[in-house]
Amino acid sequence: MILLYHKVDLTSKSAFWVSVDTFYRQMHSLLAYDVVSLDDYDPANPRHAVITFDGVYENALEYAVPILREFGYPFELFVIGEHMGKGNEFDAVEPFARFADLDGIEAAVRSGGRVQWHTWSHCRLAGLPRERMEAEVLPPEALRSRLGGDHFGWFAFPHGEYDPALQEIVRERYRGALSCVTGSDDDRYAYNRITVKEDTQWARPRTSVIIANYNYGQYLAEAIESVLCQTVPADEILVIDDASTDDSLMILENYRDRVRIEANETNLGIVENFRKAVSLASGDYIAFLGADNRFRSDYIERCRAALDSDENAAIAYTDVLIFGPRARMMADRDNVTVIGESAAERWPLLWRKYPDPTPEALARFKDHNFVHGSSMYRKRDYLACGGYRESSGPEDHHLFYRMYSLGRSLVHVPLPVLEYRQHSAAQANTVLGLEIRNRALRERVKKLELRNAELEKSAGAAPLEADARAGRERNSRPERDRVRRPELTLEDFDVTVVHYTQVRPAVAMLNSLFRHYPDLSITLVDNSGGVCPAAEELLPHLRAWEDRIEIRVNPATEHGPYGPLSHGGGLDFAVANSPKKYLISLETDSFVLRRGGLEFLVDLMREGYDWAGLGQKPYEGRFGSFSPAIAVFRLDPIREHGLSFRRSDRLPEQIYEDDLVLKHHLDVLRRLREGEPIAFPELKPPDTYRLPVPQILNIEAKHLSYFDTGEALHCELRAKGYHYKLFPPIKAIRHSWGSRSEEIFLANFAVTVPGVDVNEFLPDALKIRREPQA
Amino acid sequence: MARNIQTKAELEAFYSKADPWDYKSIPDDEDRKARMLGLIPRGRFARTLDIGCGNAFVTKDLPGDRVVGMDISTNAVRFAEQEVASRPDSDRFSFVQGSVFDVGKAFEPASFDLIIITGVIYAQYIGNAFRLIAGAIDSVLKEGGYVVSCHIDEWSKWRFPYTVVDQSYYAYRQFTHRLEVFLK
Predict the structure, then answer these.
(1) Given CB atoms, is B5 within the 8 Å cutoff of chain A?
(2) Of the residues A35, A53, A77, A740, which has the fewest C-beta atoms closer than 10 A?
(3) Element (H, E) at A717
């Protein structure tokens, strides 16, 4: 086929304009062809394609030529002599465009173009005297000699029209000629062309992406979106749901106009389900995507290119990016490199590299798989080897090995374009695996329940299950029995700041507090345990407000996450010593207060809540976690039930989801109950975790902080049916980040708090001075 | 698809006042800025580029030893310069007039390690030529650098062909915003 382009620009302004992104995709789809010059063109060869431009506009050179160069395609430029360097005003129905001048044409030649002739003036030639015809048909000698080389071997008829007299002249002077409206594949002096428009498509392999889902409703939208936004789109997207019992089908309804949905009535199991999916897919290339994973936006572009360019390749396999809550556990695997970290989720991003299909790798392929199940493969080869089959190992490895055994080759795309979510300790990415895991989980829950019962018994508490159920029931009618307390004012609240290590952030926070509430008196709990800067060290920086600060020193001196130096320990002390019935707790490490922040908290208590918090980072309600930077409590329930900010007789229901953490929490609880001291370095995992200690400690440190800063209290109050509200931090405070150390704080604070210069809240001695720019 | 792209003159006229989008009075804009700043990876950035910086509403709070703001509107660049002039760290900032299509020509190759692009990748500004934008950004972004993209989801279907580090959807005015951090 011979393609004919006119204008290529940022937008498509008429049928003769193709936009840049479309042009790129069209060129990409020619990877399945052999793009040749007109001289090499054989119309009988269905793989041959020729790219031609008529008129040759500036925009085609500016936008199309760099793309052609990137693909290394030859192309033919049919110039109109008289128009070079001028506008197309004569073409009244078309938007304005300028023709390329000779300098531009010469530059395009250097990028792989050849110059051909499209007449002197583009006038209609039929019926003209022979002399005029010849003048139009032959390029001027000056132009020929300036361009030199092997140009002007081909001619394009103006308006695509020709008659025998014209063809005769052309036949004498040219190697061939092109039409655009008439013509044929047989007549070398009137080959036909396809006028390419924005929506033109030609025969090429089609891609079907199959998203396989079973109870992955929570990830499904992300998977589908990742396929919908591909740089080279799929020709077909099929979502096959294997009888999910979650809300997957409801989510799928939203995509019904953009994807094809196949919902199995009964669960078919992995092999039957996959076989069914492929039988429904119409594409020449098939790629499966697990509904819990994502494609990077160039997955299809890269894999298509790999298969298009190598006819013997049956499979294009890629590297993998591992992300998700359990990604950290994969970090020490072979061929895995940490390339980044999610700021919102704190999980690492790992690039897992796979080997090239070298003879060595292929010799081991039968037993050492290096091709993941989301590789793109040819349906032709899938059918030839009988498709997915039950096997002792993974069904995809089995399939790919059989394709390879039939003499087909594999091609490696060495980029992490499959994004794989590592969301559980023993990742189950197949239905089979999920079922096995479900069984194992049920057994584990049963064991843990027994263990809980033991713990409950030894602590003399009510059985956990019954109590939690009662709590849930109470929680299920929160709006009705919430009693409003409109009489409350800020006077009723003990504003408490638990202070330990961080001087500068504490001073900034306190100054912002007094700036907005100059009449407020606060309690400053010195929770330093005698080892870090004591609360008194803050006073020199808070002179103006000194008489509004009452310091209470927590006398405890034990250290460690459950000792007095923890925030929870400080709050327990504050509650025990507070003269009031309501307490506002402000942390000192992550924010300066915005005007109205305290009123916001008072309003919540007026609304009848029993506690509320504004988290250090948005939790999005995923774990219902409670680790607030700013919190407010009604103290009666805490006192009445003898609750603590750092001890719980109860386990949060949600940690059932996470056996690793649950195990550890149980262990911590047992030690707390039995009065065993717990210091951070002692928190070593049992050997059975089979994970490197530092990684485990990271995970544990994260979850320990739930207990440390209020999670324990949160769980207790929740289970008792009290009313609470948790917020992401944005509404009432200027949030910076959950800093772990003053160093980080100093490095980032001033530029990270939007719209606030923290120096505004710091005395001269503590002002952050920027180093002179290097 | 839009047939025409908004011209510099139109955008210049729009930016005849200091805050034509009312960033400073609509709380959603403080929110979206806080969300973006919260997702920018930790660590030191030697050179940051803010494409479509407007009046420097976001630019002025960006990390970076050097922060360059770029906008097609000369007026916006002038307002941006005024915005940072009184800051103690004003010498961190510089602003240049230029279209998003000029990014590759305006700067040295691989000269930024953080690039912010907010409200630019819409058909009214880039037509159907995202490839050129992605290509230009790729040429000036260092290997291992980040692109932070913040756009109204319904209006911007394009994604950078890089690894997604973070992605967040949230309500913004009457729309849904999509905020993404990509790693090259």
Answers:
(1) yes
(2) A740
(3) helix A711-719
